[in-house]
Amino acid sequence: MDRLDYLIVGSGLYGATFAHLAHKAGKRCLVIDKRPHLGGNVYCEDVEGIHVHKYGAHIFHTSNKEVWDFVNSIVPFNRYTNSPVANYHGELYNLPFNMNTFHQMWGVNTPEEAQAKIEEQRAEAKETMVAAGVAEPRNLEEQALLLVGRDIYEKLVKGYTEKQWGRACTDLPAFIIKRLPVRFVYDNNYFNDKYQGIPEGGYNKLIDGLLEGIETRTDTDFFANREYWESIADKIVFTGKIDEFYGYRFGKLEYRTVRFENEILPCPNYQGNAVINYTARDVPYTRVIEHKHFESFGQAVYDNPCTVISREYSTEWKDGMEPFYPVNDEKNNSLYLKYKALADAESNVIFGGRLAEYKYYDMAPIVDRVLNLWK
After folding, report:
1. Can 183 be counted among the known catalytic residues?
2. pLDDT tens across 297-330, in order?
3. Where are the domains of the chain?
4. Homologous superfamily (CATH) for 4-78+193-254+326-373
């Protein structure tokens, strides 16, 4: 094999975008991935003609025109708008918290009525804390009650948050919820960004487009033959776990993970929405995704007589599980900084993405980050 300019470890959005721009600049690249497929966590499986987001729902959103134009130059994106619904014991509420939610919760019709209701409940929470001799919220529950009041907290925040974290809100630190945005308009669009959508034909089209003309190898573990891989390229782009790269010398970073339970159903339309959150604590899953609604609209929903749903269960991460979300608490952040100091001293390795930077990223900022590397 001729010597490479870049060996790119990981074919997710960071790795694929980097490879695309490097290839365009005339650099010789090879992309390897230990999974049996390309695309990292944006990979989709074709099930009954439906693109199933194998590693959880991915909705691209940004206000950055350069990023939006770039991804659309690879594959056109559709007009999907994220408008999740919350189910609390059969009661349905629109998300994010907006005038539709407040009307459903209290029967109020005007922003003034909604604001008055929330302020009344926030004041009650403040009085309770003052009576207990508490000046600042001691935990997530007290923080949330101060932000949105008891009704929204009890029905839409408490159970969902406890399932996500696997512990009671009274045992979670207040800083986890710095704010709970409320909108006093009738608007169910979850994101405030100017652009959002899903690639037409699914995310595999985006990854395949980014990697067109570039050599790729799946089922290939960098660490199984590390010495060889490090010897064939001038630089390595590493998108895996930074602690694994350094042999866990300071200890292992922690993650949260998600388990998916998929089901094919013999009906064209199961829940009428792509995303429904189940906010009651006694429902074991956090949400149900119906994948066809990301790409099928109107009559197209009924043209396919089947549908595919995924129930999501938040799970404590253990060794061997898929790492999804960094646990950015004080202990893990301090540990990461030790690894980052080693990474910063590397001259021939570029660390990028959520695992290599131990940071939660939406997709658009990943693309923006890589675009800026090549400016």
Report:
1. yes
2. 999 999 999 999 999 999 888 888 889 888 878 8
3. 4-78+193-254+326-373, 101-176
4. NAD(P)-binding Rossmann-like Domain (3.40.50.720)
Question: How many Cβ atoms from other residues are within 10 Å of residue 158's Cβ?
Answer: 23
Q: Give yes or no: 360 in active site.
A: yes
Strand partners, 8: 31, 237
- Round the CA-based radius of gyration of the chain to a whole number and report it: 23
Asked if 179 is an active-site residue, the reply is: yes
In the sheet that holds 215-217, the strands lie side by side as: 215-217, 29-32, 4-9, 233-238, 349-351
Which member of 136, 179, 319, 330 is catalytic?
179
User: Per-residue DSSP letters for 323-365?
Assistant: P-EE--SHHHHHHHHHHHHHHHT-SSEEE-STTTTT----HHH
pTM above 0.85, yes or no: yes
Catalytic residue among 150, 208, 362, 369: 362
Q: What is the pLDDT of residues 186-240, one digit of tens each?
A: 999 999 999 999 999 999 999 999 999 999 999 999 999 999 999 999 999 999 9
What is the C-alpha separation between 256 and 242, in angstroms, rounded?
16
pLDDT of residue 277: 98
Amino acid occupying residue 84:
P
Candidates 142, 162, 243, 312; catalytic one: 312
